[in-house]
Write a structure and sequence with these properties.
The complex is a heterodimer of chains A (about 325) and B (about 525). Chain A is mostly helical and about 325 residues long. Chain A is about 75% helix and about 0% strand. In chain B, the strands form six sheets. Chain B has a seven-stranded mixed sheet. A six-stranded mixed sheet of chain B has the order 14-21-13-20-18-19. The longest helix of chain B is centred in the first third of the chain and has 25 residues, at about 1-25. The chains are: A mainly alpha (about 325), B alpha+beta (about 525). At the A-B interface, helix 2, helix 3, strand 1, strand 2 and helix 5 of A face helix 1, strand 8, strand 9, strand 10 and helix 5 of B.
Chain lengths: ~325, ~525
C-alpha cells in the first residue's frame, strides 16, 4: 500500500506540472482581458493611459511561459504569489475559503455515497418492483436536471414556500459570528442540492452492480447454504457490487467540484469554487494555477482512494500490481 | 421486519427533530420594533446587494464617490448632492486664480483604531492614489493635481496644474491612515480586506462572496449611528435576492422593476425609487458614413420613442434622456426636451438627400442607411433598448442591425459600429461630460466611444472646466446641451431609476441622484448612519 501511494505521488508531480502549464497556456489564449476584468465596470469609464498603466503593473504582456516559470519557482517554496483580482495574497484568499468548500463537498459527497448505496441496494433486491421503478426513474430525471436549477428550486421550496431553511449564506445573514449551529443549518440546502445532483450515479451504479451480483454463482451458492437474505444482500452482493462504485467515486470528484461552482454561487457560499470562476475570467494566473492545482490534487487523491479501497475490498486485486 | 420498521421510524423522527431545530434557529423574527437583538430591531439592518467591492481600500478606488461607510473624505455630499464639509472643517479656500485649494481639518477626529487624523494622512492618501504603481482605475480623475502638501498638522494644500472648477468635488475621496498603509503594497496588502477609517462604521467581517458585516463606530466624530449593525449580503441573482427579502432573511434589497413591483402592496415594506445619472445611449461613430452623418443623427434622435422605452422596458422606473444630464440636475437645460417626431425625422432625411429605396431603407450617393448596433450580451435591459431603437429607426427608413456580443468582440469595433452604452457620473457635469464628449479623448479607452468631434462642444467643456464663475459654467453647459441637439453624436434614450425595497422600521429616509453603478453607496442606505428608528 505504501508503495502504491508513493508511486502515485511521484506520478502526480508531472501531472501537476502539465496541468499548471496548460492552465497558463489556455488562459493566455483566452479572449478575456485581465485588465478589463481587474478594473471591472471602472474599465468602461477608464482612459487609455489608465488601462495601459494597469497592463504594465499587472505584467499581463509578458509571455505566459515566463509567468508560469516564475509562479512555479515561487510556489515550490510556498509562495503562491499575489491575486490581482482579489487584491490579496493567493495563500490568504485560499485559506479563507478552502474550509467552507471542503465542508460543503465532503458533506455532499458522503450523503450522496451513503444514500446512493442505500437506495441502490433497495432497488436491486426486487428488480422491477415499484420501489425499483420509482428510484430508477427519479435517478434518470435528476441526472438530467442542471444543478443550478435544483438549487433555485430548493431555495423556492424550502426557503420561500415552507420557510424552514435559510436561503443562502454561511450563517444567518444578520449574524456577525460563525457558529457551528448556524453553519450546520445553512449547509443543509447547498450540501443537499449538491448531494442530490451526485446521487443518481451512485444509485444507478449500486443498483446495477448489486443486481448483477445477485445473479452470480457465489450469491446463488450463499442462498443455497441457507444464509439469511440480509447477509446475502449486504455481505455478498453489495460487497461485489460496490467495486464499480469505487471507480465511480474517483470519477465523480471532478463533477463534484464543478457542481460546487454553481451551488456556491446560488447560495452565496463563501467557498473556493466561486473564486475559481473569478480567477478564470480575470486571467489571474497565480490564483487560477493554485486553485487548479488543488482541484487536480483532489482528483488524483480521489482516484488513489478508489484504488486503495478496491484493493481492500476485492481480494482478487493485488495492490502490488497496480 | 419489526427491526426495520423501528429503524425507519427512528430515522423519520430524527429528521423531523432536525428540521424543527433548524427552523427554530433560522426562522426570522417577525414584527416591527420587536426590541434589541432580533432581526426585527431598528438597530440592525440586513441589505441584499448584487455585487461586492473588489477591495475596501480607497487607494484602489473604493468609496471614491463617497458613502463608503468606513471612511470619510475631506468633503461629502448631502441628499441633494451638494458638497458639505466632512473631515475638513469648511469648504476649501480657493486661491491663485483657482489653482490652490486649502483645507483645514476638523480637530479631534480619530481613526477607529484610536490614532488621530492628521494632514499627513491626507497627503499620503492622495500621493499613493497618484502613484503610477498603484492600480487605481480612477487615477486620471485627479490629473489636475500637481502637488499636495501638509501645512502643519491640520492644513492640506493642493496645488493644481491648471484651474479646475470641479476639483472640490474630487476631494470626496476617502482618507486612509498612513500608519497602517504606508508600509504595505496598496495593490495586495491586507488593508484591502481589513480597512480602518474615520467613518461611521467599522468592518467586523468580510466573508467573500457572502456578506460584509459592519458595526457602528461609537466614537464617530459626527455622532454614533443609531443603526448599530449593518450587513451587506452579496446575492448576485435578482430572483434569489427577492426570495430572501420575502422570506425575511433580508430587510432591504436592490431589485429590478419587475421584482420590486411584487412588493408594492406589502404593508411592512417601502419601495424607494432613486432617480439617476445612469443613462442608456447609442453611440454613433463619426467615422461611419451613416452614423457620422449629422442628418441621420438628428433623424434618429427624433425618431426614437423615449417615453415608450421608459414605460415598456423600464416599467416606468426611469425617465426619458434628452442628454447626458438628468432632468433634475441643476445643470440641466430644460429647453432641449424634444418629443418623438417621426415626420420631422423623415423630413430631415428627405431634405438631406437620403431617399427611400424599394425596401423602405434610405440611401444617399450609393450609401445605404444601415449600420450595426451592438449591445453587451446578457444585459436584457440594453438588449431591449437596442431592439426598440432599431424598431423606431426602421420607421424613419434607417436599417439598424442589432447584435449581442461580449465586450471583447465589441471593443475593436467601437470606432465603426454603434454600441448600446451606459454611463452616468454624479458630482459635477465636468465628470461625465468631458470624458464622454471631448474630441481630444475620442476613442481613448472607453472615453468618447462615438469619437464625437464638435468644436463648439469642446469649447464649452473647456470653459466649464476652467472657469470659477458659476454663471459662466452654467452658460457653457447650456450651450453644450443645445449643441448636442444640433449634432447628436449619441442618441440618448433613458435614465434608469434604481429601485430599492426596504422594511419600514426607520423614518425620513431619502435617496440621492445616483451614478451608473449602484449597490453599497446607493439606495436609501447611502446614509445608514443617519437613520432614525420609527417611534
Amino acid at each position: 500500500m505504501a508503495r502504491l501511494v508513493a508511486r502515485r505521488a511521484l506520478l502526480a508531480v508531472p501531472v501537476l506540472l502539465v496541468v499548471t502549464f496548460g492552465v497558463f497556456a489556455i488562459a493566455a489564449a483566452s479572449p478575456f482581458d485581465p485588465v478589463k476584468a481587474y478594473a471591472g465596470t471602472a474599465a468602461l469609464g477608464a482612459d487609455q493611459e489608465t488601462l495601459d498603466r494597469l497592463r504594465d503593473n499587472l505584467g499581463v504582456d509578458r509571455p505566459f511561459a515566463v509567468q508560469w516559470w516564475e509562479w512555479l519557482t515561487s510556489a515550490v517554496t510556498g509562495d503562491l504569489g499575489q491575486s490581482s483580482v482579489l487584491r490579496q495574497p493567493v495563500a490568504d484568499a485560499i485559506g479563507e475559503r478552502i474550509m467552507w468548500s471542503t465542508l460543503l463537498c465532503a458533506v455532499a459527497f458522503a450523503v450522496a455515497v451513503l444514500l446512493g448505496t442505500l437506495l441502490g441496494v433497495l432497488a436491486a433486491r426486487r428488480p422491477g418492483s415499484l420501489l425499483d421503478r420509482t428510484v430508477t426513474s427519479l435517478s434518470y430525471s435528476l441526472e438530467a436536471a442542471p444543478v443550478f436549477w435544483l438549487a433555485l428550486l430548493a431555495v423556492w421550496l424550502f426557503a420561500l414556500q415552507l420557510d424552514v431553511l435559510p436561503a443562502g449564506g454561511l450563517t444567518d445573514t444578520g449574524s456577525e459570528h460563525v457558529t457551528a449551529g448556524q453553519v450546520t443549518g445553512h449547509l443543509i440546502l447547498p450540501a443537499g442540492v449538491l448531494a442530490v445532483s451526485q446521487l443518481p450515479w451512485f444509485t444507478l451504479y449500486v443498483r446495477q452492480g448489486v443486481g448483477d451480483a445477485l445473479a452470480e454463482d457465489p450469491v446463488r451458492g450463499a442462498r443455497a447454504r441457507g444464509l439469511g437474505e440480509r447477509t446475502v444482500l449486504l455481505g455478498h452482493a453489495l460487497r461485489s457490487g460496490l467495486l464499480p462504485v469505487l471507480t465511480l467515486i474517483g470519477s465523480r470528484v471532478p463533477e463534484l467540484i464543478t457542481g460546487a461552482l454553481l451551488v456556491e454561487t446560488v447560495f452565496s457560499w463563501p467557498g473556493i469554487a466561486a473564486a475559481t470562476v473569478e480567477a478564470a475570467t480575470a486571467v489571474d494566473f497565480p490564483l487560477l494555477a493554485a486553485l487548479t492545482t488543488l482541484a487536480t490534487a483532489a482528483v488524483l487523491a480521489g482516484n488513489l482512494l478508489a484504488d486503495l479501497l478496491y484493493g481492500l475490498t476485492d481480494p482478487r486485486v493485488k495492490l502490488s500490481e497496480m | 421486519m419489526t427491526t426495520r420498521r423501528i429503524r425507519r421510524t427512528t430515522g423519520a423522527a430524527t429528521t423531523a427533530v432536525a428540521i424543527a431545530v433548524v427552523a427554530a434557529c433560522s426562522a426570522p423574527t417577525g414584527g416591527t420594533d420587536a426590541g434589541a437583538g432580533g432581526g426585527g430591531s431598528a438597530e440592525s439592518v440586513v441589505i441584499g446587494v448584487p455585487s461586492e467591492p473588489d477591495t475596501l481600500s480607497p487607494l484602489l478606488g473604493y468609496g471614491k464617490d463617497g458613502n463608503s461607510k468606513i471612511f470619510d473624505g475631506l468633503l461629502a455630499r448631502d441628499a441633494d448632492l451638494r458638497l458639505k464639509p466632512a473631515l475638513a472643517k469648511a469648504l476649501p479656500e480657493i486661491g491663485d486664480d483657482g489653482r490652490t485649494y486649502t483645507y483645514t481639518l476638523r480637530s479631534g477626529v480619530t481613526f477607529s483604531d484610536g490614532e488621530p487624523l492628521t494632514a499627513e494622512d491626507v497627503v499620503h492618501t492622495y500621493e499613493t492614489v497618484l502613484d503610477d504603481k498603484t492600480n487605481n482605475t480612477a487615477k486620471s480623475e485627479l490629473d489636475a493635481v500637481e502637488k499636495v502638501r501638509a501645512d502643519g498638522d491640520d492644513k492640506v494644500v493642493f496645488t493644481l496644474k491648471y484651474p479646475y472648477a470641479a476639483f472640490a468635488a474630487r476631494t470626496v475621496l476617502p482618507i486612509v491612515p498612513e500608519h497602517l498603509t504606508a508600509g504595505q503594497d496598496p495593490n495586495t496588502g491586507s488593508f484591502n480586506t481589513e480597512p480602518v477609517g474615520t467613518g461611521p462604521y467599522v468592518l467586523t467581517g468580510w466573508s467573500k462572496g457572502e456578506k460584509l458585516t459592519f458595526k457602528a463606530n461609537p466614537d464617530y466624530w459626527d455622532g454614533a449611528p443609531k443603526v448599530k449593525k449593518l450587513t451587506m449580503a452579496v446575492i448576485a441573482d435578482d430572483d434569489v435576492r427577492a426570495t430572501r427579502l420575502r422570506s425575511g432573511d433580508l430587510d432591504g434589497a436592490t431589485l429590478p422593476p419587475n421584482l420590486a413591483a411584487t412588493f408594492k402592496n406589502d404593508d411592512g415594506r417601502t419601495t424607494y425609487q432613486a432617480t439617476t445619472y445612469d443613462f442608456r445611449a447609442v453611440t454613433l461613430p463619426t467615422a461611419n458614413k451613416v452614423t457620422g452623418d449629422t442628418a441621420v443623427r438628428r433623424a434618429l434622435d427624433l425618431a426614437v420613442d423615449r417615453r415608450a422605452m421608459v414605460d415598456k422596458i423600464l416599467d416606468g422606473a426611469g425617465r426619458p434622456a434628452y442628454g447626458p444630464l438628468p432632468l433634475d440636475d441643476p445643470w440641466y437645460t430644460k429647453d432641449v426636451e424634444r418629443p418623438q417626431n417621426l415626420a420631422e425625422a423623415q423630413k430631415i432625411l428627405d431634405r438631406d438627400g437620403w431617399k427611400a429605396g424599394k425596401d423602405g431603407v434610405r440611401a444617399k450617393d450609393g450609401v445605404r442607411a444601415a449600420f450595426t448596433l451592438y449591445y453587451p450580451s446578457g444585459d436584457k435591459v440594453r438588449q431591449d433598448h437596442a431592439l426598440a431603437y432599431a424598431s423606431d429607426a426602421k420607421k424613419a427608413g434607417i436599417d439598424v442591425k442589432v447584435e449581442g456580443a461580449t465586450w471583447e468582440v465589441i471593443e475593436p469595433r467601437m470606432g465603426e459600429d454603434a454600441v448600446l452604452a451606459g454611463f452616468g457620473s454624479t458630482g459635477d457635469p465636468d465628470f461625465g461630460l468631458y470624458t464622454l464628449l471631448h474630441s481630444s479623448l475620442a476613442g481613448d479607452g472607453f472615453n468618447n466611444m462615438a469619437r464625437y468631434d464638435n468644436p463648439a462642444v469642446d469649447k464649452a467643456l473647456d470653459t466649464g472646466r476652467r472657469s470659477q464663475d458659476p454663471e459662466d459654467r452654467k452658460a457653457a453647459y447650456d450651450d453644450l446641451q443645445r449643441e448636442l441637439v444640433k449634432n447628436p453624436g449619441y442618441t440618448f434614450l433613458t435614465h434608469i431609476d434604481h429601485l430599492y425595497v426596504l422594511a419600514d422600521r426607520w423614518e425620513g429616509l431619502t435617496t440621492q441622484v445616483e451614478p451608473h453603478e449602484h449597490g453599497f453607496a446607493s439606495g436609501p442606505w447611502w446614509n445608514a448612519e443617519d437613520w432614525q428608528p420609527k417611534k
